[in-house]
Amino acid sequence: MLMKSLWWGPFLNEPDGGAIINHYLLKQLNYLRPNHEFHGIPKMPQLLDNEVLPFMRFKSVKYEAGQLQGNKHLLKEIPEYMIQNNIPLLSMFHVPWTFFPIVKAIQKIGKKTLIHQTVHWTTDMIFKSRVLQDVDSWIAPTRWGKEQLITVGKIDKEKIKYIPHAVNVEDFYPHNTLFRQSLNLKPNQKVVLVVGRCSLAKGLHQVIPIMRNLVRDYDVVFIIKAGIYERVAKSQEIGYIIKMLAKNIPNIIWLPKWTMPEFMEELIASCDILLQPSGHEGFDVPLIEAMACRKPIAVSNIPNHYEIMGQRNRYCGIFMEPSVRAEIINDGKQVIKVPSSDVIEGTLRFMLENPDECKTMGQNGYTRVREYYNLEKIGKKWLEYMDGLF
Fold first, then answer.
1. Minimal CA–CA distance to 283: which of 11, 25, 65?
2. Nearest residue to 291 (alpha-carbon basis) of 136, 169, 165, 160
3. Considering only CA atoms, which of 315, 314, 278 is closest in space to residue 299?
4. Residue 110 to residue 132: CA distance in whole angstroms
5. Which of 277, 268, 273 lies closest to 299, judged by CA?
6. What pTM was computed for the model?
7. In the structure, what pLDDT confidence band is assigned to residue 2 with cuts at 50, 70 and 90?
8. More confident site: 191 or 13
9. Is 178-372 in the same CATH topology as 4-166+375-387?
10. I need a surface site. Which of 43, 227, 242, 296 has the fewest CB within 10 A?
11. Percent of the chain, pLDDT > 70?
């Protein structure tokens, strides 16, 4: 039975969605298999908080973004660490595809590799890699993503396992929160929550024009949980506008700083509607967190959202068709579209005026997430798959 593994990817407190996924998953795996020895290589060692995962044994490796060729020391350091600690498996998550060639160095020492990979589009940059077929095993968190790895990446389907991201339903659950009390909200006052980044691809620029209208007509509160890409001018511009709106309108609250998972547990439970107008997601974990808290969702209709939400409109929430060009990515091959302001406003008006339907959508999401995205079940699938690799 596999008793050791090395995890290369983001860890808390790195402001990366993958860090949150790793955090909950590894805690659950350790709970289910306390005799398993977990090792980790953080992407940003300077931000690592060793105390949040005390069972992990971390190896700090310095490297810069870019090509593996510019970080050749990794070809020596990581295999040596695996040999020294008798670790048979390297699991990579949110590691740039340009570092995938390290799999050959791992295989040369008789060890195996696993890549935990989200797929956003058929044009994703990972498909430029020439070593995809050499990786020993893959985990795809959506069925759609798995299909792209097979059809576009030409990876043997027997190497790929579908295991979705998951939510701990003991942490995310319907309950009254002190956070709502701290905002002095009225008992029936609705809260619309947006979680993401200040970027065109996340669709926040389409939310900005409609907030005043809905605040005026429904006394709704908008909470925007979104940080800024410091070196991206458009991100700074969006952040500045939201900052000014929050300064002048009490019903608009901006939370730009990274927060611990425990805060998000309370924040998700405090909202009434989750609004996710993003046009660029490999999974979008806030969806299942909101579903676990019985919250209806207004969401852009892109492949991975469609799958997570049960492939049915007005079941766990309402799909908003993306029609506005936001960004062009992946060497100019992919146009990201997001819903228009009119569509977002109309969707939210419908949801605010139809609480009974929203309640039904929230209950459907709650049932779905406990069946398909329950962390305890997903943790067991991970361990079963890892055991089967040897």
1. 25
2. 169
3. 278
4. 18
5. 277
6. 0.96
7. low
8. 191
9. yes
10. 227
11. 99
Measured torsion, CA atoms of residues 53, 56, 61, 62, in degrees rounded to the nearest 10 = 10
Contact between 242 and 226 (Cβ < 8 Å): yes
Are 227 and 198 in contact by the 8 Å Cβ rule? The answer is: yes
Those residues whose C-beta lies under 8 Å from the C-beta of residue 166, and which sit 6 or more positions away, are 24, 25, 28, 288, 373, 374, 375, 377, 378, 379
**Assigned superfamily of 4-166+375-387:** Glycogen Phosphorylase B; (3.40.50.2000)
Q: CA torsion 366→367→369→371, rounded to 10°?
A: 160
* Confidence (pLDDT) at 243: 97
- What's the whole-number average pLDDT of the chain? 96
What integer pLDDT is reported at residue 1 of this predicted model? 57
CATH topology of domain 178-372: Rossmann fold (3.40.50)
CA 204 to CA 194: how far, in whole Å? 8
Q: Cβ contacts of residue 245 below 8 Å, gap of 6+?
A: 208, 211, 212, 252, 254
DSSP 167: B
Predicted pLDDT at 17: 87
Of 126, 155, 160, nearest to 331 (Cα)?
A: 126
Residue 79 has φ and ψ, to the nearest 5°, of -60, -40
Nearest residue to 378 (alpha-carbon basis) of 316, 288, 311: 288
Q: What pLDDT digit, counting tens, does each position of 226-260 carry?
A: 999 888 999 999 999 999 999 999 999 999 998 88
Give me the half-sphere count of Cα atoms (radius 13 Å) on the Cβ side of residue 85: 20
What is the total residue count of the chain?
Answer: 390
Query: How large is the angle between the packed helices 355-372 and 285-292, nearest 10 degrees?
Result: 110
Q: Are 22 and 10 in contact (CB under 8 A)?
A: yes
Euclidean distance between the first and the last CA atom of the chain, given in angstroms as a whole number: 8
Find the mean pLDDT for residues 28-53. Answer: 94
By DSSP bridging, strand 112-116 and strand 137-140 are parallel
Q: Which residues of 288-305 are buried (b: 16+ CB within 10 A; e: fewer)?
A: bbbbbbbbbbbbbebbbb
Q: Judging by beta carbons within 10 Å of its beta carbon (0-12, 13-18, 19+), is residue 286 exposed, middle or buried?
A: buried
Sorted by where each begins, the domain ranges of the chain are: 4-166+375-387, 178-372
